[in-house]
Amino acid sequence: MVRTGRRSAGSRLAAVVAVLACAIGLAATGCTGDRDGFRPGTADIGDPYVPGHGNGGYDVGHYGLDVRYDPSTDRLTGRAVITATATQGLSRFNLDLVGLEVRAVSVGDAPAEHRRGDGELVVTPRDGLPRGRQFTVTVEYAGVPTAVDDGALGSGGFLHTADGAVALGQPDSAATWFPVNDHPSDKATYDLAVTVPDGLAALSNGVPGPKSSADGWTTWRWSERALMASYLSTLVIGDYRVVTGTHAGRPMVTAVAASLPATGGAATSLARTGAIVDFLASRFGPYPFDSYGGIVIADDRIGYALETQSRPVYGPGFFADDRPNPSVVAHELAHQWFGDSVSLTRWSDIWLNEGFASYAEWLWEEHDGGRAAQRNFEIQYAATDWTQPSVEPGREQMFGSAVYKRGALAVHALRRTVGDDLFFRILRTWTTERAAGNATTADLVALAERVAERQLRPLFDAWLVGGSAPTLP
Ligand SMILES: [Zn+2]
Q: How far is the CA of 403 from the centre of ligand 1 (A)?
């Protein structure tokens, strides 16, 4: 990917001189409109696992989304009001947006020039945006949304289903239904109003707001007040049995596709959400969000479950033959701490999400009267291919066994090495200190060494990336 924001040292110096000239009043022309102090934001955030994703030059604080979707035509109409802060002087900036027609863009109150590139919306505000300036960009758009096929990583994005639609996917999804800085390193809060024909449910992340109806259409409202990575946003529209209640004083919203059995494996597994969350909170620290839930969809093209924030989405395959599957619920709920609250800085560290979520399955299984975590560790240890690293697994292996299972082995090896007290103190310190933030493997190693007051880097290296089976602790 070519990065458009790069300039030579000479031109950077010229820009600095121009800004200084502004600051001390030497410039001949008004400085706000002086393009010398501004440069384009980048069209790529620089994560080699997701070329073209994310953008540089600004940081989003909030997405206010208002969308209408008509399943009979598969047409979506949207208005996004995005509040962001310039992290450099910006002459123009990019948002990620796949497909869809953009009708109008404004920055603040002023119409802004815009053009489309491959998966990009390029916005040129009338005036440059100085570094540190908070601004609002409003995008009016419409069209038939598309799914994205990311080759080895599978498909994600907006999928038209028999009774509605599902917007879901990792690492691709958000840009297929709203303009976004589509990378987990730029987290934001969200408000969503989604209007669908009466009788259909429209589910998303966070706390439900008031519903309203007019002219055969119902608007559902959702608010995610904790910072959220864009791939953790979801939109599920269709015929669902929605159950709304509270758990631990917070809203709990679960939904199962109406075409699945009312008291079957999916429904009974989802009904354990509160109990599983409470168990995980007893190990990882307080639940990080202000709502709970889960959604089981019936479309078997979704062959995965995803930890969409506060309300994971489960594909139907996990409950095949109507079997209960609390294990997958434990996995996705563990991600609320590991991945959702403490998020990746870059995708090459995805074991930080999947290693801990896989380990949580072992913890839950033991708690639920099944196999002990130590036994799962031993079985997995014997089955592991140590030539595959957990960190920097390569883009094709982002969802490979080294990320999940070898990651879980590393977590348990840490526990065996430092003991239960320190191990769970490390986990709780991590989820507390890094809550609502982003982190890397190096951050985890440094934190573990600080809490345990001993060197642990060689242990992490051996278990995460070493080329041969490490000695059992
Ligand atoms: Zn996972």
A: 10
Q: What are phi and psi of 402, to 5 degrees?
A: -65, -35
pTM above 0.85, yes or no: yes
Q: How far apart are CA 156 and CA 150, in angstroms?
A: 8
pLDDT, one tens digit per residue, over 334-376 is 999 999 999 999 999 999 999 999 999 999 999 999 999 999 9
How far is the C-alpha of 384 from the C-alpha of 402, rounded, in Å? 8
* Residue 152 pLDDT > 80: no
Distance 306 CA to ligand 1 centre (A): 7
Among 4, 231, 233, 1, residue whose Cα is nearest residue 115: 4
Query: Given a cut of 90, is residue 149 above it in pLDDT?
Result: no
- What is the spatial distance between Cα 390 and Cα 404, in angstroms, rounded to a whole number? 8
Between the CA of 291 and the centroid of ligand 1 the distance, in Å, is: 20
DSSP letter for each residue of 292-344: EEEEE---TT--SEE--TTS-EE-GGGGGGG---HHHHHHHHHTTTBTTTEEE
First to last CA, the chain: 43
Residues with CB under 5 A from ligand 1 (ion): 354, 357
* Tokens 């969409």, located at residue: 308
